[in-house]
Amino acid sequence: QVQLVESGGGLVQPGGSLRLSCAASGFTFSEYYMYWYRQTPEQEREWVATITSDGGRTMYVDSVKGRFTISRDNAKNTVYLQMNSLKPEDTAVYYCNARRGLFRIYWGQGTQVTVSS
Questions:
Q1: Which residue, among 8, 13, 5, has the nearest Cα to 114 in the 3D structure?
Q2: 67: burial class by Cβ within 10 Å (0-12, 13-18, 19+)?
Q3: Using an 8 Å Cβ cutoff, are 23 and 44 in contact?
Q4: 11-31 pLDDT, tens per residue?
């Protein structure tokens, strides 16, 4: 059974940091690209970051470049999103996504991140 379980969300003040984790099981994690997305009630789900299967390349949406870092540990079947210098506009539910090809796509249940003073 495929599972992606996010954790690490919460309430943080502007300028603060959080690290999200996504633990994967039920598939060969090291063969999948991993993604983080986020969504608010007012907006469609937005892509945030990508990491290749071997961790050799990462990509980010412009709004988080220089503040967020995606990483993975294939030995632990886990992907991370380190979020620094958080802003109120980063408030969203953050989702982990695993993808291999066009048809093997899995989603986690999401974790809430709230940036507020």
A1: 13
A2: middle
A3: no
A4: 999 999 999 999 999 999 999
Sign of CA dihedral 10, 42, 116, 70: positive
Positive or negative torsion for Cα 83, 44, 11, 74: negative
Mind listing the pLDDT tens digit of every residue in the chain (117 residues)?
A: 999 999 999 999 999 999 999 999 999 999 999 999 999 999 999 999 999 999 999 999 999 999 999 999 999 999 999 999 999 999 999 999 999 998 889 999 999 999 999
DSSP for 35-101?
A: EEEEE-TTS--EEEEEE-TTS--EEE-GGGTTTEEEEEETTTTEEEEEE-S--GGG-EEEEEEEEET
Helix (H/G/I), strand (E/B), else coil: 20: strand
Angle at 24 between CA 109 and CA 68, to 5 degrees: 75
